[in-house]
Amino acid sequence: MYKVLIAEDEMLVRTGIRASIDWEKFNMYVVDEAADGQTAWELYRKHQPDLVLTDIKMPFMDGIELIRKIRDTGSPTEIIILSCLDDFSLAREAIRLGVSGYILKLTMTTEEMEEVLENACQTLDKVTKTKGSSVAPVNLYDVLEHSLLSHLTYNVPSLSECLSTLREYSVTIHPHDLVTALMVVDQYEQLQDLYQDSHGQLIQFSLLNIINEILAKSGSGLVVHVSGSRYLLLFHNEKETRSFHLISGVLSEIMTVLKNYFNVTPHFCISEMTQDLSRLRVLYQQCLLLDEQEFFLFPGSVNHYDSSWKTSLCQTLLTRTRHTLNAFMDPGFTSGFLLQPLEEQLKKEFSSKAVLNIFYDSYIVYLHNQGPGDGDSYLWVRDFLQALSACKNYYEMLEQFVAHAQKLEKLSRERMSCSREILQALQFLQNNYHRQITLNEVSGLVGLSPNYFSSIFKKELGTSFLEYLNRYRIEKSMKLLQNTSMKSYEIAYACGFSDEGYYGKTFKKFTGKTPNEYKKSCVFTTSNE
């Protein structure tokens, strides 16, 4: 296969080109990437690629100078320039230096790009037949996955065989400050929905490229895709420092980039540090032990394995829970009905099912103290249990408990100030918001004239009947936007809006955003508190 080097200072352009092309179709694979001309020149000398895709305007060394240096070596390397419309004067100079084509960034289609690559491939085939040149058989990512990850998981191949294979691809794992970090992308399924990438291939390419670039700057790490949302980072050093400082900086940068580019958070499971290569598999197993408790690891958190990691995790969960609940609940209730049972359970076993039961039992008590009468209790219990069962982690479970408890408090306050007719109307709205409802229907249900019903509704709740109904429907639609992949028009109809346009205007009135803007900005948001 022909080796390809991409030199482009814009990360998203590099990622887009790499992910959008079926390189195997042209008997090619991307051996490396560079964000500036100087780095590209160093990587060119290291890899001796058969094809270079280079931008013209880059920091430290522009594309023209890079092309000159490559041509000065006498190498027949194929060169394709990546240009913008305002680069054509420079592109002409590049063509004079012997480039074989150009890709017009942002406007060129994938089919047009492939046509340029096909021409380059045909030229390379002629050179290969003439010189009998040999090329690398596989992608470096495949080598890491099939050799390194296989060793860590199954101990096949052996460590010595694994290291030998990696050295063939100019990859050396130094025996100092060895640390493994398992990165898990939070909100991964929503990310797949947003980018319509059900198999995760585009996401995988993008994340591997981004993480590799960050690791390359520190010069002390490798990354390999494990499965789905999981990526393994292996850190090492030429000299012994016994410091996590460099690693912390790398993880922090990865978090920042993933948040800025994808609006997602990763959480990390980090092993101990060792100076012994033979303990690589032990380090990986430490990461997996932490990962087994994924339900209890907060999104965006960094979790270190040590002899007291279970105690530390337990205290973190209890501290977060206490801080969250005491902000609006009586501390006596929080401690007696929730924190004490939680602490006893977590010290014994991290069980999501057991924790669900504790939240459920606490909610039943709170419902009895704050909530509706016996006739309505079933509906509240059913809704809460359904919400709990859908939670993917402890953080979501705590969030649902808070949300439902606050609804009970609000209802309790309303019941203290509302008349029987208004309470009856509110119950009707909450049970029937998904269908068409008229003022006449509701006022007739409670035995009042429409005008009188409207006046007491506004007096007791501080808002009009229609305003209250629309706000309630919008709140329900916000949940669907956050937690489902339903289209906006489907959500509109599911929440009682007969017209998608009216739904959009009403949504923007209450939230300041369109439904699609809200979905993009909020669906992946995760609190770091």
From TrEMBL:
Chain positions with 4-aspartylphosphate modification: 55
Signal peptide start-end: none
CDD domains, alphabetized: REC_YesN-like (cd17536)
Stretches assigned to the Response regulatory domain: 3-120
Domain HTH araC/xylS-type span(s) in chain numbering: 423-521
UniProt keyword Cytoplasm present: yes
SUPFAM superfamilies: CheY-like (SSF52172), Homeodomain-like (SSF46689)
Keyword terms: Cytoplasm, DNA-binding, Phosphoprotein, Transcription, Transcription regulation, Two-component regulatory system
InterPro entries for this protein: CheY-like_superfamily, Homeodomain-like_sf, HptR, HTH_AraC, Sig_transdc_resp-reg_receiver
Cellular compartment(s): Cytoplasm
UniProt-listed PANTHER family: HISTIDINE KINASE-RELATED (PTHR42713), TRANSCRIPTIONAL REGULATORY PROTEIN HPTR (PTHR42713:SF3)
Function: May play the central regulatory role in sporulation. It may be an element of the effector pathway responsible for the activation of sporulation genes in response to nutritional stress. Spo0A may act in concert with spo0H (a sigma factor) to control the expression of some genes that are critical to the sporulation process.
Identification of the protein by name: Stage 0 sporulation protein A homolog
Natural source organism: Blautia celeris
